[in-house]
Amino acid sequence: MAVRDITLGQYFPGDSCIHRLDPRVKIVCALVYLVSLFVVRSFWVFGLCILFLAAVIILSGVPFRFISKGLKPVIFLIIITMLINVLFIRTGDPVLTIGKFYITNEGIYRALFMGLRLVLLIFGSSMLTLTTKPIELTDGMEKLLSPLSKIGLPAHELAMMMTIALRFIPTLLDETDKIMKAQTARGADFENGNLKEKAKALIPLLVPLFVSAFRIAGDLAMAMEARCYHGGKGRTRLHQMKLGRVDAVAAIVMVVYLGCVIASRYININIF
Amino acid sequence: MAEDAIISFKNVSFSYLQEEDGSAPVEKLALDDVSFDIQRGSFVAIVGSNGSGKSTLAKHMNALLLPTSGSVIVEGIDTITASDEAPWELRKKIGMVFQNPDNQLVSSIVEDDVAFGPENIGMPPEEIRKRVDESLKMVDMYEHRRKGPHLLSGGQKQRVAIAGVIAMDPDCVVFDEPTAMLDPRGRREIMAIIRKLHDQGDTVILITHFMEEAAEADRIIVMDQGKIAADAAPAEIFSKEDLGVLNVPFAVKLSAALRKAGFDIPAGTVTEEKLAEFLCR
After folding, report:
1. Helix axes A75-88, A105-131, angle to 10 degrees
2. What is the ipTM of this complex?
3. N or C: which end of chain A has fewer CB within 10 A?
4. Residue B96 counted as domain residue
5. Parallel, antiparallel or unpaired: strands A94-98 and B227-232
6. pLDDT in tens, B27-69
7. What is the pTM of this model?
8. How many domains does chain B have?
């Protein structure tokens, strides 16, 4: 396992205007974009969504194959969603009939519509994680959620937990690697056997891993206390987030875009 | 208590309950009536075998642990009262570096990690920037400031941990076996930083298993079963054979052998550096 090579999250390093956007603005913009996809009612408005996303992708300079990688784990979900739409939507005119079974034009239309929406959802959210460092994401989230801490939402704690989780992913991978080697040296077999045997073989890996994760957590808690950590109260930050001109432009573009999408619901251009 | 003592232990005992399989918890005495003062600006090494109480001792210095009886006075404040109100006021003055470099770094970016302490004590951002840069330069890790800790060697990680502590500008730094998990090169680097800190006038307390490291201190405290077995300058400690002091450093052995062979090696030659300096003269 080449633990040293792993990248945290799926950040694609770059220095484009999209990368430089304030994380708070970027998170809000991404959310607005995702919501806008659910406002869309017809295909031609999706054209606008695609155009917008394409512009963002080109500006960011992230190669398309990186973005499409995000599709891999959910491709099944998308196909199943589309199939269900095709097979179970009974309204509209039948276009294909095999015996009792038929497919309607409305079914195909809906399936394509849902499929496109899901793909855009994935691409849209990938653009956020691809152009924002994980640490900036957590910082941005903390800042955005901080007004909610007044009603009891532990914004700082959540962000701190995410920061620590990110920090310890490589450490725990290293640890897993070490335990695996140690157990293999003692005759454990992780490779062979059927599913049940393989699952059973994981026990001697998982138990020590949990033990060491708790030990690490204890050590870390002590180190944090020794470094004066006492929660979010009275804490300052090294990196001050400042809104710049790019952020203003992004906000305006986003508002215009959202306006167009919403307006499209009331303008009737009937192509289909 | 001496006038310029930064840390002062007065009849400190510490016990905890240890559960053994099946049987009722047993009370273990980790520190047994320990008293000593640490002078401001001094360099004190604490040695002793595993379980001798040296780490427990260290954790009393910044109120991570509180004495069961007796009192620990740090900068004129009793740690018990300090921990009731604001233990971080005290921990700002007494920094602590732990053994495992991996388990004390908080952030996935070096400079953010160094900033963690100053952020916690509410330093203004410009001040944090300045302190972070200075500390990273001091431990010679400035060019790695944007990297993730998982890309660094053990010695480098430990240097980042030290930077994180000195960024808070403490008066005293307690090192709890900082080199135990490092290779010889990492160990040399850490010792160089410790020396530098001491030269700057900070009080340094070094807990270690390595007698070569302890030999560099002004004073060595030997712990044994929760008690202080000896407390003297390195030369004196290493001359006491009945202490069974772990491993006498090579330089001490060589000086003794040379003395026997008729060379006039001055007492107090306990580090290889000093010995080499003397021999080359």
Report:
1. 160
2. 0.85
3. C
4. yes
5. unpaired
6. 888 999 999 999 999 999 999 888 888 999 999 999 999 999 9
7. 0.82
8. 1
